[in-house]
Amino acid sequence: MSELMFPQDFLIGAATSSYQIEGEIYNTDWYIWEKLGHIVTGEPCGKACNSWELYEKDVQLVEEFGLNAYRMSIEWARVFPEENVIDFDALAHYKEYLATFKDKGIKTFVTLHHFTTPIWMYQKGSWENKEVIKEFLKYAYVVGRELGDNVDAWMTINEPGVVSVLGYFTGIFPPGKNSVLSTIRVTTNQLIAHAETYKLLKKLTPNVPVGIVKNITWFYSLNLFPLDKYLAWFINKLFNDNYLRGIRTGKLPFSQKRYPGLKGSIDFWGLNYYTHVWISQKLPNMAINHLPNAEKVTQTGWEWDSEGLLRAIQLLWDTLQRPIYITENGIATLKDEERVEYIKEHLAQVLEALKLGIPVKGYFYWSLIDNFEWLEGYIPKFGLAGFDHKTFERQPRKSGYFLGEILKTKKLF
Predict the structure, then answer these.
(1) Which CATH architecture group holds 11-409?
(2) pTM strictly above 0.90
(3) What are the tens digits of pLDDT across the range 128-152?
(4) DSSP codes, 147-208
(5) Which helix (H) or strand (E) segment is 315 a member of?
(6) Domain ranges (residues) in the chain
(7) Distance from C-alpha of 364 to C-alpha of 311, rounded to nearest angstrom
(8) Mean local confidence (pLDDT), 40-66
């Protein structure tokens, strides 16, 4: 039993993203990526978990598990299916979805961009085209105006480093480019879009906190070769430091130029944390997630590194002292008892952070339900619940109830 208990106002919830659970979203860059054959299984996202129609089932899951918070995203391509065309029916659907949580007293954390970009913006260069800033602000304005009354916290962009590095440097995500200059342009546009969206949402919904979701991954050189050590440093710069430096100082990537309003443009940090990565120029895609002698490895090949979560929390706190929410942390596994152990190990690190006086305000497990896991398709099982791919019946797991029990008792056991 832990000596330290979680605060009474601590949030414990589960996270999802629109593209991964809603289903039948065919006007995004990721649908194009699927059609080009980049999914390991060859299986498209399709109807996913059919949450667009069955969202009430997901609300029931959150309530049944005894959680008090839920993180979700809005699909830009649903709200703006075409350039300058707003789908008010989609907005009404999201409003109803959010209101259902509110009626049950469950806090909602809403992300505006979770990897996917509308086809019409993708065809114009997506995040590499600085026009994306203006278009993203149009979208944020409409969402903020229409949905703000039912939102407890906003997050502008989820894991911007994944979009920039995997999409424009390693090329395994759309649009599949391999360019340092493109990666820097994307990062610059993301930071400016974030800063402007922060300012916009603070005007539209002044009482709703606004943050960004940063995935902290630790990058280690596989060996002592100078080139590999430099490569690990450089990827860390692209993936982590450019964003942290930008929000801390207001400076844009690889520049001394400051963008007005960027410095300090968060009310809280959203921290996604999973693992570390080993870097070498001789590796496929320059990276592997675990060494051959790793003791604990997930279904996705990621090594458990729970202590890395505490270091990630400390990094964000040292960068800019704002409250922190763990907005994603989870394990792909076929063994639910392993999922329970994973949750315990990582929440123990959150308690250590609280002991140090760092204001960690909540923990969202990834994910509420097994879903479409990007390049890996439907193979990884991250969910607190599974689902039947034919009937879409939700299949709750013991780990979900375990998480709810922690919230109820405010302690690990």
Answers:
(1) Alpha-Beta Barrel (3.20)
(2) yes
(3) 999 999 999 999 999 999 999 999 9
(4) HGGG-SEEEEEE-HHIIIIIHHTS-SSTT----HHHHHHHHHHHHHHHHHHHHHHHHHSTTS
(5) helix 306-319
(6) 11-409
(7) 18
(8) 97
